[in-house]
Amino acid sequence: MLRALLQLRRVIPESTSDALLRRFWVRHWSRERGRETLKLGRPAPELAGSERAVLCEAVADSYPFLNVLEVGCGFGQTFDLLAPLFPKAHFVGIDIDAERVEQARGLAESAARTNVEFRVADAAGLDEFADDCFDLVVSSASLLFLDPARLASALRESARVGRGRLIFLEQHKEGAGLGQRSFENDTRGEYWIRDWRSAAEVLPGAVVNIRKVPNPLWTTERWQDLGCLVEISL
Predict the structure, then answer these.
(1) Domain-by-domain residue ranges, the chain?
(2) Quick count: other Cβ atoms within 10 Å of Cβ 23?
(3) Could you give phi then psi for residue 214, rounded to 5 degrees?
(4) What pLDDT, on the 0 to 100 scale, is given for residue 220?
(5) Strand positions, DSSP E, 40-183
(6) Which residues contact 87 (CB under 8 A, 6 or more apart)?
(7) What was the pLDDT predicted at 156?
(8) pTM
């Protein structure tokens, strides 16, 4: 259904396409909320406009694609949402934490996801991947734990293996440069708040678009006031 709607964008008016896609996402996140409610045994929060929803919708808006890389995949939650929506695409997640990678593999196996794989790798050195081998590179709440020097390396590597489009769920603050260290409301140690327009200093010519997450749900770090979707076109 989603892929058909995305393909229709080429032949129907933009306003009609936008309305159909919005209707799809409203129903989709309502169903996901229902599933979460069953898992939790109590009412789950509204997912529409949340961090995960904003990221997934932005990835979908980049369709068509065949190969997607997630930098800092964690437990595999992002691809658990995306893989069933795009069964013909191949999703590769990397994380420096081997234990998390094993958990991501377990989640994929339990859900019978056949179009995903997870590997232990460092975002700052993607030597195992060839240039331009991914249509899209995404990251969700992971780059904020890289200091400015490692972030610069990760951005250059993401741009090298990607084909011109990066989508990150991160924290943005005007004037913060490539990184201001923070411990405020943290659960995993220090993290870095950035002015994501500074990415153009690392990736000359990059066009950076930043959108606030309208319905932030995460209470750790500073997602409630600084959570943003960062889209970089190269």
Answers:
(1) 1-48, 49-233
(2) 11
(3) -75, -30
(4) 85
(5) 67-71, 90-95, 116-120, 136-140, 165-171, 180-182
(6) 115
(7) 96
(8) 0.93
- CB of 33 within 8 A of CB of 44? yes
d(CA 76, CA 70) in angstroms, rounded, equals 9
Please give the structure tokens belonging to residue 63: 């369709």
Give the span between the Cα atoms of 30 and 179, in whole angstroms.
Answer: 36
Contact in structure between 61 and 87 (CB atoms under 8 Å): no
Strand extents, DSSP E, the chain: 67-71, 90-95, 116-120, 136-140, 165-171, 180-182, 191-193, 207-212, 227-233
Full pLDDT tens readout for the chain, 234 residues: 898 999 888 889 999 999 999 999 999 999 999 988 998 899 999 999 999 999 999 999 999 999 999 999 999 999 999 999 999 999 999 999 999 999 999 999 999 999 999 999 999 999 999 999 999 999 999 999 999 999 999 999 999 999 989 999 999 999 999 988 988 776 777 899 999 999 999 999 999 999 999 999 998 888 999 999 999 999
Q: Which residues, in sequence order, are bridge partners of residue 166?
A: 137, 232
Both structure tokens of 48: 């529409």
Please give the backbone phi and psi of residue 148, each rounded to the nearest 5 degrees, phi first.
-55, -40
8 Å CB contact between 187 and 21: no
**Does domain 49-233 fall into CATH 3.30.750.24?**
no
Residue 227 pairs with which residues in a beta bridge? 171
Distance (Å, rounded) from C-alpha 68 to C-alpha 229?
17
